[in-house]
Amino acid sequence: MSSSCTANGSTFSPSVNVTAQQGNPALNLSLSPNYGSVVSISGTLSNTDPQSSLTVVNGSGSNCINFSNTFAYDLFTFQVNVSGSYTFSLSGSTPFGTMINLYENAFSPSSPCTNFVTSNGVFASSSVSIGNSITANLNTGTTYVIAVGSFDGTTPALPANYSATVSGPVGGNIYSGTPNPGGSFSYKYVIVNNATGNISAITSTPDLTAYAFGSYTVYGLSVSNSVTQTVLNTYVGGTFVAFQTALINSVVCASLSANSIVVTVPNPLHLSSLRLSAVASNSVVKLIWTAVGEDETENYLVERSADGKTFSAIGNKAALRTGSYQWVDEQPAEGSNLYRIRAVSKGNQIYFSNVAVVNFHAFAMGTALVIPNPAAGQTTVRLPIEGLYDCRLTDLSGKTLEHFTVNGSQFSLDLSDVATGVYLLHCRSKDQNIISRIVRQ
Question: Which end of the chain is less packed: N or C, by CB atoms within 10 Å?
Answer without folding.
Answer: N
